[in-house]
Amino acid sequence: MSSLEQDLLARLKASEDKSVAFLQALLRAPSPNPPGDTRQAANLILDSLREAGLDPTVIAPRADMPNIISRFDGPRPGRHLVLNGHIDTFPAADSEWERTPYSGDVVDGRIHGRGACDMKGGLASLTLAFLHLHAVRDRLNGRLSYTAVSDEETFGPWGARYLFEHHRELMMGDCLLSGEPSSPECVRFGEKSPYWFVITIKTKGAHGAYTHATGSATKIAGRVMRALDELKKLPTRAPDNLLAMFRDPAIAGQVDEGCGAGHSAVIPEITINLGRVSGGLKMNMIPGECRLEVDLRLPIGLTKEEVRPHVQRIMSQFPEAEWEEVSSQEHAPNWSDPDGEMMQILRRTVTDQGRRTPVPVVTLGTTDTRLWRFAGVPAYVYGMTPETMAAANENIRVDEFLHVLRVHTLASARYLTAAG
Amino acid sequence: MSELARILLDEIEAGADEWIGLLQAFVRTPTPNPPGDTRDGTARLAAFLAARDIEHRLIAPLSHAPNLVAQFEAAHPGRHLVLNGHIDVFPAGDAARWKHDPWSGAIENGRLYGRGVADMKCGTTSSLITFALLHKHRDKLAGKLSLTCVSDEETGGRYGAGYLFANHPEYVMGDCCLNGEPSSAHTVRWGEKMPLWLAFTVKTRGAHGAYVHMSESASEVALRLMERLEKVTELEPKPAPEIQRNLADPQVRAALDRSMGKGAADILGKVTLNIGVVEGGLKMNMIPSECRVEADLRVPFGLSKAEVMACIHDILRDFPQVTVKEESVESETHANWCNPEGEMLKIIQRNALQVRGIEPVPIATLALTDARWWRNAGIPAYIYGCAPDGMASHDESVAIEEFLNVLRVHALSAAAYLGGGA
């Protein structure tokens, strides 16, 4: 281990309490999206950057959804690493939580709050890694950029997408490291793609006792969802090397340990989630309308263009239903080289920390990393265990957070000192 | 025809403009429920009685939803007839879809338009006028006549008819009830299926929408449950012989299909299932951890609530994630009915034939009215009213001549029941 790494580890060790306190503060600054107002949390980040003497740029095409960019150069030329995280979180239904969703409480070695794993834990880690590396910038080559964006959870237009469209030069680099949840057991190198549509079923409606008078929009909705199940059986064509990886029992086993039982099995599958269903106004009226929000996930090796005609065919059996795609056209399954340099650095760094070497994995959800991959920049994700992501009582282990922070810091340092 | 019947018909003819004006003014007084503020509507009806020096009372368990009651004893001892109607109406919905403003009471081509005119201001106004006319002729009648104009019918009756039964039985516990809910001239009604309203809550863990292996989806469980619930429609009821006769009568079946739409005769004797509301999930890309299903079952004659619930609980054995709560009136255990061949039914048929030239067919109905309070108390209750044109939809209206006919049939039938002939 280099002296730089030893110094960085010493800095990290000495500041563990402060690191945890920073994450707690972020968790206590609610930023659910929708509605997506992230200003309170963004201000905490800006304060910490400015305190270190940095002069971050704030780009806020929507005033309540600021994006933060900060960068510094080492004394010698080299490669450009970009760190990326998002400030917004899923919303939280208070009633389902044991403690308030924005408590930031540390209990039994776990830190609680909406966004703990997705991804204020990873964001805090990237922020602190950036600050520690800034402190030792004289010993680094090339450039390190830090990007903390808003509007990720809904794939909204005001975060990374806006920056890529309007400030592409600030986003581009030679490699991207993201702190989205991956579990310490895995490094994510690719992701499935959402294919979302909204189905609206309209019938005449009637008094609830007059079931002979009209079809029921809610009952038709049930039949529509059952018919859509057929999509799960569509054939897919992933590259052979990826398929072999997905099927490798050793990799699959470790993926399931890190990401939850069953994760590896759904990587190559088409999945369907009925995210929202909303039909009817009143118990005793036959609903004249029912709306379904359908969340399909396409694996690597299948495109929307291939799935669309099948959806069309199935939906044509339901003359009462209309459907409309709502996911952005740019979505597509995407991946970086599963043997790429940053993948290797991350795996080695984790191993050096005394943990099991993480395995490459494909993300089931979607993250902003896709934007870098679409732009040709290899992008890798290393972050928290996603166990309670998007669920009530979201929490992460404190020691896991500190581990991820060490890996982010050391892997970045290795990338910016490697011969490249 | 009895002398009193002739007098009543003459008085209805002579006062027609006043009756029409009263109905129009009543329609122009909005009483939508929800929210259910019926004070102005009730005041209009009370003013009509006050102008005739007829004693009456307001009984208001909810201050914004008073019930109007009145009662007189006729000259001779006899039976007690109760007239019942409700003051509250459905909300108007989207006013833009109406030809005339829903509270205009506009008259066009002999029809009076407005929310609630069919359900049931036409009927309630008929009850009110019937009461006033018979009050005037009480020296020629036997027994007792009560008038009960209630609020809170559209939302269940707890503060309307239900309240009167619990707290003022002297106004409602008669020997028979006559109600002017919409029936059309072609039918007279003797029974109603029982609504069984069940709210199901599905709870699962929830997760990110791409992590389908981590949690069952509450919404998908709900959809599966909805399909399985269809089993209740296969339950086989065993109604009383007189009801079996009625349900099998081809004339009755034809009348059911004509008045409630083709297919009504087929479902009257069966359990129906409407999934009124299904609501699950917060967001497209989250696996929903909760989904609510509101089911509206209608239980026919000859099947108890307990039997239906046994079927439901049997289905729920396969759904440990689901809890169910009844939201209908728990004390109601059966569909409500009275004799489809009873005395008052025959009186109404006879008078309708004479006034309108159509003998109404005795049918039971799919939807619920306040008549159930009487039938459940063992008191025969019959419904005869206008056609349900535009009921619960837009452009609700009643032909003015039909309103007057309903009034005529009510007045003559009430007089006949109270010994005034006809």
Give the name of the CATH architecture of the largest domain in chain A.
3-Layer(aba) Sandwich
Which class of secondary structure composition applies to the elements of chain B? alpha+beta
Task: Identify low-pLDDT runs of chain A.
Answer: none
Largest contact between chains: A-B, 60 and 59 residues
Largest sheet of chain A: 6 strands, mixed
What does this entry look like structurally?
The complex is a heterodimer of chains A (420) and B (422). Chain A is 36% helix and 23% strand. Chain A has 14 helices and 18 strands. The radius of gyration of chain A is 23 Å and the shape is globular. With 420 residues, chain A is of the alpha+beta class. The two termini of chain A are 18 Å apart. The longest helix of chain A has 20 residues, at 116-135. Helix content of chain B is 36%, strand content 23%. Chain B has helices at 3-14, 16-27, 39-51, 117-136, 161-167, 169-172, 218-229, 241-248, 250-260, 264-268, 305-316, 343-356, 371-376, 400-417, and strands at residues 57-59, 67-73, 76-86, 107-108, 111-113, 142-150, 176-179, 187-192, 194-203, 207-208, 272-280, 286-287, 290-299, 322-326, 336-337, 361-365, 381-383, 397-399. The longest helix of chain B has 20 residues, at 117-136. The radius of gyration of chain B is 23 Å and the shape is globular. The interface between A and B is large, with 60 and 59 residues.
Concise description?
Chain A is an alpha+beta fold.
Which terms summarize this structure?
heterodimer, A: 420 residues, alpha+beta, Alpha-Beta Plaits, 6-stranded mixed sheet, 4-stranded antiparallel sheet, globular, B: 422 residues, Aminopeptidase, 2 domains, 14 helices
Topology, element by element:
The complex is a heterodimer of chains A (420) and B (422).
Chain A: H1 3-14, H2 16-27, H3 39-51, E1 57-59, E2 67-73, E3 76-86, E4 106-107, E5 110-112, H4 116-135, E6 141-149, H5 160-166, H6 168-171, E7 175-178, E8 186-191, E9 193-202, E10 206-207, H7 217-228, H8 240-247, H9 249-259, H10 263-266, E11 271-279, E12 285-286, E13 289-298, H11 304-315, E14 321-325, E15 334-335, H12 341-352, E16 359-363, H13 369-374, E17 379-381, E18 395-397, H14 398-415
Parallel strand pairs in A: 3-6, 3-7, 7-17, 8-16
Antiparallel strand pairs in A: 1-2, 2-6, 4-5, 5-18, 8-15, 9-13, 9-14, 10-12, 11-13
Chain B: H1 3-14, H2 16-27, H3 39-51, E1 57-59, E2 67-73, E3 76-86, E4 107-108, E5 111-113, H4 117-136, E6 142-150, H5 161-167, H6 169-172, E7 176-179, E8 187-192, E9 194-203, E10 207-208, H7 218-229, H8 241-248, H9 250-260, H10 264-268, E11 272-280, E12 286-287, E13 290-299, H11 305-316, E14 322-326, E15 336-337, H12 343-356, E16 361-365, H13 371-376, E17 381-383, E18 397-399, H14 400-417
Parallel strand pairs in B: 3-6, 3-7, 7-17, 8-16
Antiparallel strand pairs in B: 1-2, 2-6, 4-5, 5-18, 8-15, 9-13, 9-14, 10-12, 11-13
